């Protein structure tokens, strides 16, 4: 995340991922932006199988504390592509 006016990174924002069709009623996952404005959302395991099958469009909500800063539902849609990570055991 970067500021639209200063183009500087925005840290400590909460970013939530939501299903556009609301087949999943709850937030799919959330993350907090770091000092560089970057974030990675881990999708809740309870929703993962359904999302792999359905591949929904996803939108984002961005918050600073309780204040909503952005809601991309009408602006940007992300086509869901689930990545699975495999951890090696040593």
Structure description:
This protein is an alpha+beta fold. It has one domain (14-79). The chain has one helix spanning 45-54, and strands at 14-19, 29-32, 57-64, 67-71, 78-79. The protein is elongated and about 40 Å long. The N and C termini lie far apart (36 Å).
Which secondary structure elements does this structure contain, and how are they paired or packed?
Elements: E1 14-19, E2 29-32, H1 45-54, E3 57-64, E4 67-71, E5 78-79
DSSP strand content: 25-35%
Helical segment count: 1
| Overall radius of gyration | 14 Å
How many E strands?
5
For the sheet with most strands, the description reads: 5 strands, antiparallel
Give the integer mean of the pLDDT values: 81
> How many domains is the backbone divided into?
1
* Percentage of residues assigned to helices: 10-25%
Low-confidence stretches: 84-90
Going by helix content, strand content and strand pairing, the class is: alpha+beta
Shape: elongated
Distance between the termini: 36 Å
The secondary-structure element order is EEHEEE
Salient structural properties:
90 residues, alpha+beta, five-stranded antiparallel β-sheet, 1 helix, 11% helix, disordered C terminus
Can you summarize this structure?
11% of the residues lie in helices and 28% in strands. By secondary structure, it is an alpha+beta fold.
